[in-house]
Amino acid sequence: MTRIINIDALRDPAPFTLIVDGKEHEMKVATVDDFIANMAMMEQLGTKPSMTEELKVMIEIISKAFPTLGREQIGKFQFSALSKIFEIVRGDGQTATNETTDAEGNGQAAS
Fold it and tell me: Coil, strand or helix: which one is 40?
């Protein structure tokens, strides 16, 4: 008997949603190609990247993870919000997600 794996049924829903200026932005679930591209960008930073280079990569990765979120909006975040979102995108912030962040980066308790 042939065994069938339905890849369509294995797709995960969006793991996080950001609310910025009252609009919801769902996080795109990373594909294998996304993961490879993100790892390549991180590797290109080398061992002693400049802060500017690091920030550009963070913004690029966040932009890919939240495709409906504009670069201009990301640029208006406070650094603490940018760092928190990047942790979530990388998977480091999976347990600390009871907050939503507005465009100013002010944490607000989720209801």
Answer: helix
* Mean pLDDT within 63-92: 91
Q: Which residues does 66 contact at the CB level (< 8 Å), separation at least 6?
A: 18, 25, 26, 27, 28, 85
**50: helix, coil or strand?**
coil
Other Cβ atoms within 10 Å of 97 Cβ, number: 14
From 83, 81, 63, select the one nearest 72 (Cα to Cα).
63
Give residue 17's identity as a one-letter amino acid code.
T
Sequence ranges of the domains in the chain: 17-109
> In this structure, are strands 99-101 and 107-109 parallel, antiparallel, or unpaired?
antiparallel
pTM of the model: 0.72
